[in-house]
């Protein structure tokens, strides 16, 4: 089939997670439920943090930003898949595909950096408690979030601009449930050498530095905690990091699985399943991890649920 430049009228075909027609209603119900839980759970986190002055601290400020990013990440990928399942169609426009690439990379990258910022916040809180409020002042917290958004948005824009140079055969099939950049590069009919180089360099730079920051923060945290003489103090210090460690393990474990499965096996099915974990499952579990392990968050959520507006 002759390759042609994609125009506004060009379309891709998203093959989804399964082509079995009998599974489609079950997939629709499952992902609709997961999407609703993700949106409602993260909205509860944002509402709880904004409504209670006791939660107006740097840790909860970053948590509310993480919840907002998780909602955006899920909204970028799941609704289109649900529409395609319901209408029994697989098409997505060229512009729609590039939009998915841009925002899915952006919000996943912001999640990545926010987890690093949250690790730094825990490092300051445990290792420098007397200077915590002076160091983690509102200006620095806002600046860290702003820099995170700007860096990731510009990097994602670079990837999209490079992708716009590529050509694709008419009716290109993508073995995924959304337009993921590695899968898109895989089906391009033109040379993707530059795109792959930029992708690997960006992944290395934007991956190594944050991961190094997280590892450094927790090495200092562990060292500081081990020097504590009080068992209660050690438990309290580790408990404040428990939720963050769970989310970090879940996010990096699944994200690493995506790129290792793509780089080593080139398996589209394995990549799709791993992508479900970090674009759907992790954003859904984050509110439960933070609310169930955090006494302050549980108390605020209970008060919110007791309000008349939440009663039938």
Structural class: mainly alpha
Pick out the low-confidence regions. 1-9
Corresponding CATH architecture: Up-down Bundle
Q: Strand order within the widest sheet?
A: 3-2-5
Outline type: globular
Q: Could you give the order of the helices and strands?
A: EEHHEHHHEEHHHHH
- The number of domains is 1
Please report the number of helical segments: 10
Fraction of residues in H or I helices: over 70%
Span from first to last CA? 59 Å
- Beta-strand content: under 5%
Characterize the biggest β-sheet.
3 strands, mixed
Task: Give the full name of the CATH homologous superfamily.
Answer: Rhodopsin 7-helix transmembrane proteins
Strand tally:
5
Per the CATH scheme, the topology name is: Rhopdopsin 7-helix transmembrane proteins
CATH class: Mainly Alpha
Rg of Cα set: 21 Å
Keywords: G-protein coupled receptor, Membrane, Olfaction, Receptor, Sensory transduction, Transducer, Transmembrane, Transmembrane helix
Membrane topology: Multi-pass membrane protein
Protein name: Olfactory receptor 7D4-like
Main location: membrane
């Amino acid at each position: 089939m002759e390759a042609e430049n994609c125009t506004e009228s060009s379309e891709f075909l998203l093959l989804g997670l399964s082509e079995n027609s009998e599974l489609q209603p079950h997939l629709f119900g499952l992902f609709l439920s997961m999407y609703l839980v993700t949106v409602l759970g993260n909205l509860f986190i944002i509402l709880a943090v904004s409504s209670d002055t006791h939660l107006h601290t740097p840790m909860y400020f970053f948590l509310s930003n993480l919840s907002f990013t998780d909602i955006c990440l899920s909204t970028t990928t799941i609704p289109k898949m649900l529409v395609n399942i319901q209408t029994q169609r697989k098409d997505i426009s060229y512009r729609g595909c590039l939009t998915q690439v841009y925002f899915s990379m952006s919000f996943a990258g912001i999640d990545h950096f926010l987890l690093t910022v949250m690790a730094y916040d825990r490092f300051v809180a445990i290792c420098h408690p007397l200077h915590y409020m002076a160091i983690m002042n509102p200006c620095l917290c806002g600046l860290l979030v702003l820099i995170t958004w700007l860096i990731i948005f510009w990097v994602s824009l670079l990837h999209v601009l490079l992708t716009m140079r590529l050509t694709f055969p008419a009716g290109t099939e993508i073995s995924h449930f959304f337009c993921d950049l590695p899968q898109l590069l895989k089906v391009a009919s033109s040379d993707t050498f530059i795109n792959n180089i930029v992708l690997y360099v960006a992944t290395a730079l934007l991956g190594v530095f944050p991961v190094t920051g997280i590892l450094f923060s927790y090495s200092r945290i562990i060292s500081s905690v081990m020097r504590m003489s009080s068992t209660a103090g050690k438990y309290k210090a580790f408990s404040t990091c428990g939720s963050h460690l769970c989310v970090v393990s879940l996010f990096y474990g699944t994200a690493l699985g995506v790129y290792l499965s793509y780089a080593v096996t080139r398996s589209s099915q394995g990549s799709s399943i791993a992508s479900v974990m970090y674009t759907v499952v992790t954003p859904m579990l984050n509110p439960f991890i933070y609310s169930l392990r955090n006494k302050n968050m549980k108390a605020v959520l209970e008060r919110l649920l007791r309000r008349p507006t939440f009663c039938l």
